[in-house]
Structures are given as structure tokens and as C-alpha cells.
Specification:
single chain; alpha+beta; Anthopleurin-A; two-stranded antiparallel sheet
């Protein structure tokens, strides 16, 4: 797909509400942006920040679940979208939190970015 086409699919420069922040049973953080199909972030990998788009979940996810915390990955995903698409992912009043421990949610909401460690 040509650059022109993907840019039309996800408008650049717009703030995007986060519909859901989810932590899977395997510990994978999933950030579900509030975008209609067929819009997606399929080229997020170009930011080279360890983030990919999951068509199955319609979410932004880390390539690997490992030593980094879910909070660290949240901000990495947010920064990757800003870098590659020029958009700001924003928590909204209606953001759903699924299987996210209260301490992790609090860190994300307060903007506490942990060291990459």
C-alpha cells in the first residue's frame, strides 16, 4: 500500500481517544484506539519502537512481552503513534480498563513513566 493510501486511512494530526486499555492473561498490554474499521495502524512498525498493530485484537501491542512493565509499554505505544502517525492517543472518560491492576492504571493516568530498565 502506498504512503498516500495509509495516510488517508488514519488521519494524521488528530487526537485519538483510547477506547480500552487491556492486560491479557499473558501480560500483554493492548491499547485499543477508538477508530472505525477499516482504519488501523498497520505501519506502526516503521517507528522502530517495538510496537505492532494486531488486526485480530484491533489494538496496538508490544512485539514481545518481557521485562518491561505494562506502564512502560503504554507510553512506548503512545510515543510510537505520535512518531509514526503524528497523532496523540488520549485517555478519555469512557476509556475501559480490562484486567489492569489499580496501581498500573494510576501510574498511566498520572503519567508516571518508569525507566526502561
Amino acid at each position: 500500500m502506498a504512503d498516500r493510501e495509509w495516510r488517508e486511512r488514519v488521519p494524521q494530526g488528530n487526537p485519538i481517544a483510547i477506547a480500552e486499555v487491556e492486560l491479557s492473561r499473558e501480560g500483554e498490554l493492548r491499547v485499543h484506539p477508538n477508530i472505525p474499521e477499516p482504519q488501523c495502524y498497520e505501519f506502526i512498525w516503521r517507528a522502530a519502537m517495538g510496537v505492532r498493530w494486531s488486526n485480530e485484537c484491533r489494538a496496538l501491542v508490544p512485539y514481545e512481552v518481557g521485562e518491561k512493565s505494562p506502564t512502560w509499554w503504554f507510553f512506548q505505544i503512545r510515543d510510537a503513534v505520535a512518531c509514526e502517525y503524528g497523532q496523540t492517543l488520549e485517555l478519555a472518560g469512557g476509556t475501559k480498563w480490562t484486567n489492569v491492576p489499580p496501581a498500573v492504571r494510576s501510574e498511566i493516568e498520572r503519567g508516571v513513566i518508569p525507566d526502561a530498565g
